[in-house]
Design the sequence.
C-alpha cells in the first residue's frame, strides 16, 4: 500500500512543492519499498512549501537511543541536550501542539523528546473524520492557553 501511495502521490508532491521525509527504521521493509521511499525523499528534497513527515517503524525511545549511540560513536564524552537534539531523526526539535485523535489519551512512544513542552489536545474524532473546522477550533483553544514550558 505504501509503495502504491508513494507512486501515486509523487506528482502531487512535485506540483505543490511538498517535501517528503520519513522517520523511523525502514530497514525491515522490502528492498524495493526501501528504494521507493529513498527515491521519493531524494526527488522531493528541494521542495520547500510544506514537509510531510511519515513515521514508519518509529518509536521515540528508539530515536533517543539511536541519537545517544551516534554521539558515543562520534567520541562524545559529555552529552548535552543540544547534542541529542542535533542527532534526532525529526527535522523539528520542539512541537507546540499535539492533536491526538480517536479518543486515546496517550502519546504512545511518539516524539517523546520533541513533546517535552507541547500542549496536548485529545479529541474523540477518528482520523478519517477529522476536518478543518475541528482543526480551527483546536487552534483557537491552543491560542487561549498560557504556555509555561515547565515553569509554574
Sequence:
Amino acid at each position: 500500500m505504501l509503495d502504491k501511495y508513494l507512486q501515486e502521490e509523487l506528482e502531487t508532491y512535485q506540483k505543490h512543492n511538498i517535501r517528503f521525509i520519513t522517520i523511523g527504521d525502514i530497514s525491515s521493509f522490502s528492498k524495493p519499498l526501501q528504494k521507493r521511499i529513498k527515491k521519493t525523499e531524494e526527488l522531493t528534497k528541494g521542495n520547500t512549501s510544506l514537509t510531510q513527515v511519515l513515521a514508519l517503524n518509529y518509536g521515540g525511545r528508539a530515536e533517543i537511543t539511536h541519537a545517544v549511540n551516534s554521539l558515543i560513536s562520534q567520541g562524545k564524552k559529555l552529552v548535552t541536550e543540544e547534542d541529542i537534539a542535533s542527532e534526532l531523526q525529526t527535522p523539528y526539535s520542539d512541537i507546540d501542539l499535539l492533536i491526538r485523535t480517536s479518543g486515546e489519551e496517550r502519546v504512545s512512544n511518539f516524539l517523546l523528546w520533541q513533546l517535552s513542552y507541547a500542549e496536548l489536545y485529545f479529541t474523540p474524532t477518528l482520523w478519517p473524520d477529522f476536518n478543518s473546522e475541528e482543526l480551527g477550533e483546536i487552534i483557537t483553544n491552543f491560542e487561549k492557553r498560557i504556555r509555561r514550558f515547565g515553569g509554574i
Observations:
- The first helix runs from residue 2 to 15.
- The beta strands are 18-23, 50-55, 97-100, 119-122.
- The first strand starts at residue 18 and ends at 23.
